[in-house]
Amino acid sequence: MKTFYKLLGVSLVVATTNNFVWFALTFWIYLTTKSVISTSTLAGIWLVFMATSGIWFGSIVDHNRKKTAMLWSSFVTLALLITAWLIYYFTLGELFTFVGSPVLWVFALVLMIGVVTGSIYHISIPTLVAILVPDKMRSRANGMFGTAMGVSFAITSVASGLALFHLGISGVLVIAILSTIFAISFLSFVKVDEKQIASGASDLGSDIPPISAPQALQEGGQASKIDIKGTISVIKKVPGLFPLIFFTTFNNFLGGVFMALMDAYGLSLVSVQTWGIMWGFLSLGFIFGGLYISKYGLGKSPLKTLFTINIILWIDCIIFAIQPSIYLLAIGMLVWMIFVPFIEATEQTVFQKVVPQERLGRVFGFAHSVEQAASPITAFFIGPIAQIFFIPFMTTGAGVGLIGDWFGVGVGRGIALVFIFAGIIGLMVTLLARRSRAFLLLSQRYSRAK
Question: Which helix (DSSP H) or strand (DSSP E) does residue 77 occupy?
Answer without folding.
Answer: helix 66-89
